[in-house]
Amino acid sequence: MKRILVSVYLLIAVIAFAQDKTIKKIAPRPTAAIDGKTLFNQYCAVCHGHDAKGGGPAADALKTPPTDLTQMSRKNGGKFPEQQVLGGLKGTSIKAHGSEDMPIWGPIFSNMNASLGQGQTRTYALLMYLEKLQSN
Question: Does some domain include residue 9?
């Protein structure tokens, strides 16, 4: 009986913990990386998953589920929506950006190592990586 009560208590604790998921927002750490895959894994995979399909470890805590980034071309008639994605990354296209949970990476990248002027380089590298991930 004692073993059953302990099991029930643990089950209740696990359920309560699972329902109380929150995302701790912290400032992104600056990086020297300028290639798209590394940037994606450092900044995007926590929500979108390393496979970019939306199943990252923080996905369940978001108000709006992360987009499956491998399906953007398919959903756009087979053409990669470069301007829409770029607008989302830069913050100029709020619809493409999704919910307020997603950071606007363009300004963040621009502020990293600002003296090196690599903000746009990072944004475009991430854009090109996302294009390579597309499923046909």
Answer: no
Kindly state whether residue 4 falls inside one of the protein's structural domains: no
Question: Which tokens go with 10?
Answer: 């643990």
Instruction: Tell whether 13 is covered by a domain.
Output: no
How many structural domains does the chain have? 1
How far is it, in rounded angstroms, from Cα 67 to Cα 88? 12
For residue 92, give its domain range: 27-132
- Burial call 20-51: b when 16+ CB within 10 Å, e when fewer: eeeeeeeeeeeeebbebbbbbeebbbebbbee
Asked if residue 34 belongs to a domain, the reply is: yes
pLDDT confidence of 41, banded at 50, 70, 90?
A: very high
Task: Write down the pTM of the prediction.
Answer: 0.70
> What is the pLDDT averaged over residues 33-37?
88
DSSP code for 62:
S
40, 126 contact by CB (below 8 A): yes
CA atoms 98, 100, 105, 106: torsion sign: positive
| Distances in whole angstroms, Cα of residue 135 to Cα of each of 4, 45, 64, 98 | 48, 18, 22, 21
